[in-house]
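Query structure, 159 tokens:
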């Protein structure tokens, strides 16, 4: 029996023991299921109301919103115009697909695709490394100081 099957059997045994009058502590010890008291009573109540279906582990978290046509649209939009702000894409998704998607979710999809809406530093070409040299006066000194930064895909390196 797999882990889910064992857990379901342990839950069923826990509920059966509690329905026979065993205390929460005794039932969890006999079932070998380490759950809190409130979880045990909530599970027992759910089995009374819904039956055996309540013993199944359901999906936790939020359902996936960006799938199918909306996901394909987002990918196409980000590839065609990578500098489009996420807020603009959010408005288009709301209008076109009636989806309420957070900006952080849009940014996560962009990151997974390797497409960022951040602008490249001036002087950088596509793709690879570029060198930016700038001459700045040193604070409180009339002598100019040279600063060289190399932009790489993982960030900046300064010399």
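Result returned for the query:
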């Amino acid at each position: 029996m797999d882990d889910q099957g064992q857990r379901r059997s342990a839950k069923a045994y826990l509920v059966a023991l509690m329905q026979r009058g065993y205390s929460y502590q005794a039932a969890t010890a006999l079932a070998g299921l380490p759950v809190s008291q409130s979880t045990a009573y909530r599970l027992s109540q759910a089995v009374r109301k819904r039956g055996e279906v309540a013993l199944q582990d359901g999906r936790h978290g939020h359902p996936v919103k960006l799938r199918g046509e909306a996901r394909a649209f987002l990918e196409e939009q980000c590839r065609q115009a990578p500098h489009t702000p996420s807020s603009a894409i959010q408005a288009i998704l709301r209008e076109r697909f009636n989806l309420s998607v957070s900006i952080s979710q849009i940014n996560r999809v962009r990151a997974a695709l390797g497409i960022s809406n951040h602008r490249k530093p001036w002087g950088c070409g596509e793709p690879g490394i570029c060198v930016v040299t700038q001459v700045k006066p040193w604070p409180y000194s009339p002598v100019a100081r040279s600063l060289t930064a190399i932009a790489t895909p993982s960030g900046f390196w300064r010399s």
